[in-house]
Write a structure and sequence with these properties.
Layout (H helix, E strand, L loop, with lengths): L6 H30 L2 H25 L5 H14 L1 H16 L4 H27 L9 H44 L1
Helix pairs in contact: 1-2, 1-3, 2-4, 2-6, 3-6, 4-5, 4-6, 5-6
Length: 184
Amino acid sequence: YRITRDYGETANEKVNELVEGLVIAVITVIGLIGLVIGWRPALVVALAIPVCYSITLFVNLMMGYTINRVTLFALILSLGLLVDDPITDVENIARYFAMRVLSPRMAVLRAIQEVRPALILSTLAIIVSFLPLVFITGMMGPYMGPMALNVPLTVTVSTIVAFVITPWLAMVALRNINKKDDQS
């Protein structure tokens, strides 16, 4: 016999290309944040990415989804959306720290309270925009299922991370910046 086509090899190549694209996208996002805001805020945002993806992939496992091209595309698409919430938090916290009016803890609390409504509304807008994908039927329904699950889920997890983990990490990472500025 002679093998004329090997779709398994082709699919593997496509999945590897998407994983490579995801890694390049993560590095690019973190690099740009590092250039614009600084390496400490970039580190805080960088830590939010694996937390969000880990929880999303765990839910995928529980729902019976596999890692395929559509799942990876949804994760790449959601990368830009998931870093928005931590970036908003970190920028506002850094602004409050730069003002030096409040204690670090109070500055973090005030900064998060200030951006919370915008973060919640942006998350709801993304969920509502991807919700119609759940109702696709026929051949495309199962194909679009991972997209309908992963993008809203990743963004929701990102919002939770922005309310729970990012403020603490930002307080720890950014409050030392002001102490160094005071000493010089």
